[in-house]
């Protein structure tokens, strides 16, 4: 996918300025930079949940956005597999492809396998750790056959093992041909990525 000349303001203050982005199939791109550099804003614009004040975004495939914090409303108890199943609602980008209940079940099981959560399929989503919730959202995208994965990795809160697991899953999706971009705060993830987008003060500096 591609973004050109992306700019964004909060309350008139520039947050992104003329940022160009290319996410290639089969690669993982780390989005790096100090706090407040505009990383989350860029991910949200690429995902389409925010609209840039200037510039263009071209998405050639279904996008999965994996956000930082996932709240689990107590009043709506859902199991892990139900949350992943939600990923198949409204699928796919190609309306001519009809997905029946059996196909949905297959996709959910396959997605849970790919994120290593098959053993927690029947567990309440609200009982999961932050890292496990992040993987459930990834599984939603996998079940929907998303080809673009955009992650806003939390700066704090996930332990090294959890980050490593997510990194391995993202690398596997990229090796299947997906385009992956991940806001990364730790040097290991950045070093591991195929390419790096560096932001500072809303400008792309690398
Ligand atoms: N809802 C908002 N209203 C006003 N300003 C905002 C809002 N959200 C973010 N900002 C500002 O926009 C700038 C970029 O924020 P953004 O969250 O994109 O940065 P970031 O690089 O992801 O930071 P972090 O590493 O701390 O998550 C910051 O200066 C931030 O204060």
Can you tell me the CATH class?
Alpha Beta
The number of domains is 1
Question: Which runs of at least 5 residues are low in confidence (pLDDT < 50)?
Answer: none
CATH fold descriptor: Rossmann fold
Series of H and E elements? EEEHEEHHHEHEHEE
In total, the number of strands is 9
Keywords:
206 residues; 25% strand; three-stranded antiparallel β-sheet; six-stranded mixed β-sheet; transport; alpha/beta; single chain; Rossmann fold; binds adenosine-5'-triphosphate; nucleotide-binding; ATP binding; Metal_Ion_Import_ABC
Outline of this structure?
The chain is an alpha/beta fold and 206 residues long. The protein has helices spanning 39-47, 80-86, 101-114, 130-143, 160-175, 187-192, and strands spanning 2-10, 13-22, 27-32, 54-58, 63-66, 148-152, 179-183, 195-200, 203-204.
């Amino acid at each position: 996918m591609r973004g050109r000349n992306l700019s964004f303001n909060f309350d008139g203050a520039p947050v992104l300025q003329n940022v160009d982005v290319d996410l290639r199939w089969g690669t993982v791109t780390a989005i790096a930079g100090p706090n407040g550099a505009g990383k989350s804003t860029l991910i949200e614009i690429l995902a389409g949940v925010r609209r840039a004040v200037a510039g263009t975004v071209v998405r050639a495939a279904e996008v999965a956005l994996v956000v930082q914090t996932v709240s689990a409303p107590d009043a709506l108890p859902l199991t892990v597999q139900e949350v992943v199943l939600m990923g198949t609602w409204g699928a796919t980008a190609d309306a001519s492809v009809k997905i029946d209940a059996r196909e949905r079940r297959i996709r959910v099981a396959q997605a849970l396998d790919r994120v290593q959560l098959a053993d927690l399929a029947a567990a309440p989503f609200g009982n999961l750790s932050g890292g496990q919730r992040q993987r459930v959202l990834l599984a939603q995208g996998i079940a929907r056959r998303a080809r673009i994965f955009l992650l806003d990795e939390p700066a704090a809160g996930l332990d090294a093992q959890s980050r490593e697991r997510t990194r391995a899953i993202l690398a596997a999706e990229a090796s299947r041909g997906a385009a992956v971009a991940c806001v990364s705060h730790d040097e290991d993830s950045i070093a591991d990525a195929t390419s790096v987008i560096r932001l500072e003060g809303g400008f792309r500096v690398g």
